[in-house]
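Q: I have 183 residues here and want to know how they pack in 3D. Can you give me a structure?
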Amino acid sequence: MSESKATASLESCPQCNYSLRGLSANHHCPECGLAYDENSAIWRRRFRWREAILPLLGTYWIATMFSRVLLVLPNFVTVLFVLGVLALWAVQIRRFWSLYRHGRFAAIMPHGLMFRVEKKEPVFIPWSNITHISVKPSPLGAIISLKKERDVKEVLRIFSTRMEAELFVERAEAQRTSHDSAK
């Protein structure tokens, strides 16, 4: 299982990954202009290399188990099998490299929540569109209820413990209520 990590301050911009080290706590990202402040926090899913290596070792094991069978089969079947194993490896390596570079995260920002749960661009939801935030027990994550009737966004597979998910929800709700009361 992957671990997640909450940082007190943003080390890099959640939108463009520009390094924010050395910049003031109330600032805009110099690269993309995303606003952040001292209350901004981000939870990132940590990439663990064993998640990438175990499937590769599994396909290697299967290939070695079938290697004796392949010796008696025609050459074109052997070539197809080897190409299939190499294709599986390429797909796994590409998938895990993509997760490593563009990982899942959930961020509390001054003007709303930002998260990425897939390899797509990050999603930003302004505080004015959020009615409630709660913990989802299985799979572990957070549920963000929006003002549109029955519209819900789920932030899943970022947090490694229920306590981390509860901390995210608690801090996000506090930020949302302070934003609503400031209006």
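Q: Anything worth noting?
A: The mean pLDDT is 78. Residues 4-47+104-182 form a domain with the PH-domain like fold (CATH 2.30.29.30).
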